[in-house]
Amino acid sequence: xxxxxxxxxxxxxxxxxxxxxxxxxxxxxxxxxxxxxxxxxxxxxxxxxxxxxxxxxxxxxxxxxxxxxxxxxxxxxxxxxxxxxxxxxxxxxxxxxxxxxxxxxxxxxxxxxxxxxxxxxxxxxxxxxxxxxxxxxxxxxxxxxxxxxxxxxx
Length: 154
Hints:
Mean pLDDT: 93
Shape: globular
Order of helices and strands: HEEHHHEHEHE
């Protein structure tokens, strides 16, 4: 039996999952950008991730940001960062808990970097729903070549 939902303000699935990704981003310990990610399949959340230092290590909020100190522009020198990206943490959490993510959709508050793009391709992610852009042309090329559907929502 279907309910009549006329007049009820209810987000569509994309906006629902992006709102959750936005809440997940609030756990971030990054001093430069708070990012949240969800891996979703069949309208079910498989895994979440936010950007920050690996578990048990000091957070950037405690020890400072080397990229900020060196004035490294966004989209460059990711290897200097002590933190993991939200997309990486979502993939890792799925692996730790034995959750298959092949053909899942990534909902992320920001466009992934090239390092995350390569991981997402190899993890079998075939669609991305994003809220904000990021200055990484290589990531865009990787997704295009892999045939991954990328779309933005507001």
